[in-house]
Write a structure and sequence with these properties.
Layout (H helix, E strand, L loop, with lengths): L44 H9 L8 H13 L5 H14 L5 H4 L4 H11 L3 H21 L2 H7 L6 E2 L13 H12 L7 H10 L3 E2 L6 H9 L13
Parallel strand pairs: 1-2
Length: 233
């Protein structure tokens, strides 16, 4: 099974934009330095830019976490480049992925979003249901961020893979998170989807150890503020 990855904007300053970059102009890669091997000379620049700037970088914004969850589900049966190209349209369709807004979508709104964004209506209904579950989690522990990061003790998992073929499509951690989310009523959150979501949200740093981004993602954590422990679930 092909490993799937999802892109997001680099910072709040650029929120809402996905800018294709020239592969030669992205993050400080010397001629003798190699990206993760799923990036090839034929990779779309939008995908290269995502790898160089965003994959493996921890996310703590609840709106962006919902966005990642929706987009990770959307790539099933598709590919990340196609998802990236639809990202802005989806962000507009889902009102910036504000759970308070999405949770109130009517059936008419659900049908409209499905038609306008060109996505399966079941995905829209799943997003609405998941937004409702997120609101419940916020009432319990304060934020979706605290809930998710509690599964990894508020510290990204940094793997040590030398080959993309060694990266699993799911693991025990994604199975645990999936099981709890299913128990809470989330939809489209199987272990494989959740593992891809963990990569997208930076809960796990799966850059190959031969890729400069592996250490850069680790180093970026030194400047990140500590995350307060959540209340008991």
């Amino acid at each position: 099974m092909r490993i799937a990855h999802y892109g997001r904007t680099k910072s709040a300053k650029n929120e809402g934009k996905v800018v294709p970059l020239d592969a030669s102009a992205t993050t400080d890669f010397g001629r003798d330095q190699r990206r993760c091997t799923f990036i090839t000379p034929n990779s779309d620049p939008i995908y290269v830019a995502y790898h160089d700037e965003e994959w493996g970088v921890p996310v703590h914004d609840d709106n962006l976490l919902l966005e990642l969850l929706v987009l990770t589900g959307a790539q099933v049966g598709s590919d990340w480049t196609s998802v990236l190209r639809k990202r802005q349209a989806l962000r507009e369709a889902f009102s910036g992925f504000d759970a308070d807004v999405v949770a109130k979508f009517s059936e008419r709104k659900i049908t409209s979003v499905s038609s306008d964004a060109g996505i399966d209506i079941s995905l829209v209904r799943g997003a609405v249901d998941n937004a409702k579950r997120i609101l419940q989690i916020k009432r319990e522990v304060g934020s979706f961020d605290k809930y998710l990061w509690g599964f990894v003790n508020h510290k990204p998992i940094s793997t040590q893979y030398k080959s993309c073929h060694k990266i699993p499509v799911k693991n025990s951690k994604s199975e645990s998170i999936s099981k709890d989310m299913v128990r809470r009523g989330f939809r489209l959150v199987g272990p494989t989807v959740i593992h891809s979501f963990m990569q997208a949200a930076g809960l796990t740093n799966d850059h190959l150890i031969t890729c400069p981004r592996h250490l850069q993602c680790v180093a970026s954590l030194a400047s990140s503020p500590p995350v307060a422990a959540p209340a008991a679930l």
